[in-house]
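Newbie here. two chains, one complex. Structure please?
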Amino acid sequence: MLEIRFHGRGGQGAVTSVELLATAAIEEGKFAQGFPSFGPERRGAPVLAFLRIDDQPIRLRCKIANPDVILILDPSLIRIQKPAADLKPNGIIVLNTNKSLAEARQEYGLTHTLAVVDANQIAKQVLGVPITNTTMLGALLRATECVKLDSLKGPLQERFGPMAAKNIAALEEAYKQTVVEEAKS
Amino acid sequence: MGHRKGMEVSIAVSHAVALARAEAIAAYPITPQTHIVEHLSSMVANGELEAEFVNVESEHSAMSACIGMSATGARTYTATSAQGLALMHEILFIASALRLPIVMTVANRALSGPLSIWNDHSDIMAAKDIGWIQIFVKNGQEAFDHTVMAFKIAENSKVLLPTIINMDGFILTHVVEAMNFVDQEMVDKFLPPYSPRHTLDPKSPVTMGAFAMPEIYTEVKMKHQVTLTDSQQVITSVWDEWANLTGRAYKPVERYKADNASTLFLTMGCLGEVAEIAVDELQAAGESVGLIELRLWRPFPFAELRAALAGANLVIICDRALSPGGAAPPVLAEVRSALYALSHRPQTLGYIIGLGGRDVSPESFKDIYAKARMEIAQGPSQEFYLYGVRG
């Protein structure tokens, strides 16, 4: 089972992301759960969202405690939440940042395998707004291949209708620009 | 027939209600139930569901409106949670006494106070004696299936009782997961239109809900009690019919790896699946442990439960509600009552878990198993425990 935890702020679309990914994984014939950290979410407040993907039916009904992957939509959350603290030793961090790999590692003290992309820049260019959740899906697919890009297109179409094409373009651009580096031992 | 799709479970429930061709819905939004009626309301507004959707100012009015609409012969649905169910309380008894086959989803949530929007079973346990059929589901598939089946059970002329489907708030309602859906044609064959025995109709006036003198009140209550108890036959036959159509079989008391187990967990709702993982792991480690999942809460399936538990030495009953100051939390109390008449009965120990959204993992069940075994070895110091309370 693959367990991914999204770290964002209310309004950044973390919950939408896990729903899209879960739907896509199920379209591929797998089993998946996508769900939010259930709480009084407010725009701007820290929000968690959870994704599980497996070949077997999933029977867990609890939060993800030790994720395989964390995806950080907003780097300002790193100091507040320390999201990598309970990440598995061989886990992956997917980070939205305008910093380079080396700068990001130094600034945030990250030692796991790290994938970085400047999703704000891409989202502003392609979507016209700095909402990075669908853009960051491209970075996630580059770092983990948890679902196929083609499987995401249907759910994106269903969710965004006429806006789907732009979201897919932003996702594909992020896929190209994402840089991944293995863990520092 | 049917198709597999990923969807938020609340939305799947609203589709089940639409497939059942509900004709009348009255609801007031309350977390975590809101997505169900929100989606139904947009289906009605978009012309996808031909139904009357009545926006009301409270749950007290929602249930009152449901009673009125059901009395006219309309297939009627609503959904609520926690304080919403509590606000309906006096009307819930009237719905069942009038024998109106309303179907309601309760997205189980902790009752305030302190204010909590999160999941436990304190809402439905405060309403266990309302005279409705009450069923618990443990995943999205079951929530979908049982929503459709509930209408057929409730409307059966031998039953004519309102029915509640309990689904855990958030940890079930708000999860996108895979479900197998059935098509309209199949549901139409399975569930014919509701043909009420009596309706409120100005052309042919009848009185519903008249008062009862002491000479008749007890007899009415007896009839209600007998009908609710006997409804189990209809419930299981509807479930069997569904199993023949879909291959998905349901029983009032589900057994999971329980054969010859010395210790049995007993759960209700979607923590059953979490307990299944713990049972798998404990059995792999050589422990003699199994799981009983209680699906049917009202009518209480005494015979099946006794049969399922009789061979065990210890039953660990997991409640998700407290009965403050009472002899035992609600499920423990009922299970003990069911076992009391047996000459050889297992020991019972109660653990109250997952209150107000507290996370429950497979490790929680394994920890409870270890603690319960130790308690039994030493002689229990209490009859039930609030699990995981911090010092």
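Moderator note: The two ends of chain B are 54 Å apart (CA to CA). The CA atoms of residues 277 and 346 of chain B lie 23 Å apart. Thread marked as resolved.
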